[in-house]
TrEMBL record:
The keyword Nucleotide-binding does not apply. This is Putative lipoprotein. The lineage of its organism: Bacteria, Pseudomonadati, Thermodesulfobacteriota, Desulfovibrionia, Desulfovibrionales. Residues 44-141 form the Rhodanese domain. CDD domains: RHOD. PROSITE patterns: PROKAR_LIPOPROTEIN, RHODANESE_3. Gene3D superfamilies: Rhodanese-like domain. The keyword Transmembrane does not apply. Keywords: Lipoprotein.
Length: 146
């Protein structure tokens, strides 16, 4: 009986000690739907800025009205990050940033991580769900391109 109590106590103490040793989780990514983006564009809401990271040829084919082309995709190299960084000075501190990438995943997540490193609060960073390629056809009046 004493051995069992000792064993259980040891396990309990170990659990308590190691529970604080887990790696801090990176903040989650914030996504915004195409319908919500459409509302922002239609209202002319200046509280948001759209940073489009698509490569130039894709941006030329299709992009959101008022999107700023950065050509930073996939935001992995220092050169690609610099393409994104050069647009930050024009963004007001109260504006939220919506990242538009081809599919709304890797490149957009890389952008958000980089912008966090630049001191932009995660609450200001949004990713367009499913990216430019997932933009619904019924909202094509908000798309420009060739």
């Amino acid at each position: 009986m004493k051995m069992r109590s000792f064993f259980l106590s040891t396990i309990f103490i170990a659990l308590v000690m190691f529970s604080g040793c887990s790696k801090d989780k990176e903040p989650e990514f914030n996504y915004i739907s195409a319908n919500n983006v459409a509302d922002i564009i239609n209202k002319g809401d200046t509280g948001y800025v759209f940073l489009d990271i698509q490569v130039q040829s894709d941006f030329d084919k299709h992009h959101l009205k008022s999107a700023v082309s950065t050509c930073a995709y996939p935001v992995k190299t220092d050169e690609e990050k610099a393409l994104l960084k050069k647009h930050l000075a024009a963004i007001k501190p109260e504006q939220k940033i919506i990242i538009v990438c081809p599919r709304g995943k890797g490149g957009a997540e890389n952008s958000v991580k980089y912008l966090r490193e630049q001191g932009i609060d995660n609450s200001r960073l949004l990713i367009l769900e499913n990216g430019q390629q997932g933009w619904p056809g019924n909202l094509n009046d908000l798309i420009e391109g060739k």
